[in-house]
Every structure is written in structure tokens, then in C-alpha cells.
Specification:
The chain is an all-alpha fold. It is built from 12 helices and 2 strands. A two-stranded antiparallel ribbon has the order 1-2.
Length: 305
Amino acid sequence: MSDVGILSSVLLNTLIIGSGYAIVAMAFRLMFSVSPFFNLALGASVALGAYLGYSLLPMFGIYAYPLILLGVILFTWVQEAFIYRPMRNAGASPMVLLVVSLGVYTIFESVIHLIFGPQYQTLGSVMNLTQFNLGFAHLPLVQLIIIILGLVSLFGIYVLLQKTFLGKEIRAIAQCSELAYTTGININRVIIIVSIVVGAILGLYGVCVGFDTGMEPTMGFNILFKGMIGAIIGGPTVLAAYLGSMILALAENIGVWFFASQWRDLIAFVIFILLLWLRPNGIFVCTPKKVSCEFKLTKPKRSKK
């Protein structure tokens, strides 16, 4: 393969893998803006979308997709309404909510393990058999859908945050939740709506993962982990999370090209630590200028009489 072909393949794989990371990163960043704790149960939403597709698609075909979305949305809504909101109202800290979300994810993973077993499952190869010839590579339909879903999520979340009244409420809560509450914003309502949006995005991506790489009970944590890294190294905005995910995927693909695929997670960890050491607030965050607090003591001048 020529150097141009190698470069094209690396960039295409970066776009595919990075789009998957970016979908999770943007959903995580959106959820974190109104409910600032590391919600590990978001990974369960991805796995639930995949396993609902595995259960419902053979029976209902294309009509199963609304049921899949409804199931994942209901799952995220129940978590927020009956677990996280009562605990927040009781004064639970973000660390407590983190541990609770880990418990929710562990329970979900155990239930999936009991129902479907520990073996590797797949939604089939229909969407993988349909491929597009790009000249230097063949792109399966499901991977094209992942790329489109990433771009649609980026554009949709941007419009939501910048062009709607709900977006103004989300940005106000992200800036200062106490001040937003005093101005009359119903924070619990906003969090519920954001949970529904995030659940829909992650549910659709879960179905795509089921078609693309298959599923297993532990898939949710691995997917969420890479998305969280992309969101953190990118920065606090949705666009920064998208770009950070692309940078992570590019570095992983370059590392895999020179070494082996078993080193992918190690590469992600090294990049994560190195970039946070160099840019602790994210790559796409402008470092504020330091304001000097030094002052000199001078003797007061005596007034001449």
C-alpha cells in the first residue's frame, strides 16, 4: 500500500472511531453541564440500546427503533427521577452520586449477564454487507451512519444550546446553578429533558455498535471511558469534546499502526495523562492571563501648607 493509501486509511479509521467517541463525549458533556458528576450509568444506556435492538429487531424489524428509543429514554428518566434527584435534594455530594451511578451500572451489567449470558452477541451483518466504495477503502453502511450520527449530534446540540430558550437555561445552570435557581429556572425539569436527549443519542449509538462490532455485557463501561477521555482532553464545550475525541482516535490509530491493537488502551491512557499535564483544562480552552496581585507600600505624601 502506498503512503497516500496508508494515510487515507488512518484518517478514515480516525473519522469512524472518533465519531463513536465523540457521540459519547458530547452526550457526557451535555449531561455534565446540568448535573456535574461523572455518571457512569451513561455507559449502560449504550449497552441497553444494543441489547434492546438484539431483542426487538428480529420481531418488529424497522418498527423496533421507536421502542428501542422509548426503552432507553425510560431507563435514563427513571434514574434521574427516582435515584439522582432525591439524593441531590438530600444534599448528596458529586462523589456520592458517582458511587451510586457505579452501582446502577453494576446492577444493569449483572442483569444483562443473567438474561443474555456472557457470550459475544451481534445484531447481524446486513448493514455491514452494504458498503460504499471510496476508492482506497470500502466503508460499511453502519460506519457511515456512525459518522453521520456524530455530525448530526454535534449540530443538534449546538442548535439546542445556542438557539433555544432551553439552551439558555442549560448554559445558565452550567455557569451557576444557584443563581439559575434564584432566577426561576426549574433545574429538575431541565435535567429531565437533558436526560431524555442524552438517552436517545446513546440508545441510537448503541444499536450502531451492535451492528458494527457486536455487544457484550461489559461494553458500556469501555465505550463510556473513551468518550469521557475525549470530553476531558477537548474542553468544556460540545465542539471541544468532538475535536478532543478525534484527536484521541487519531493518536490511537497512529499508535496501532506502528505497534499493535492490544496497545490501544495504553495509548489512550498515556495521551490522557500527557495532555492533562500540559493542558489541565483541555486542549481547546484559552488559558486566562494571570492577574498580578502585587502592590507596593508607599509613604503618603505630606500636604504642603
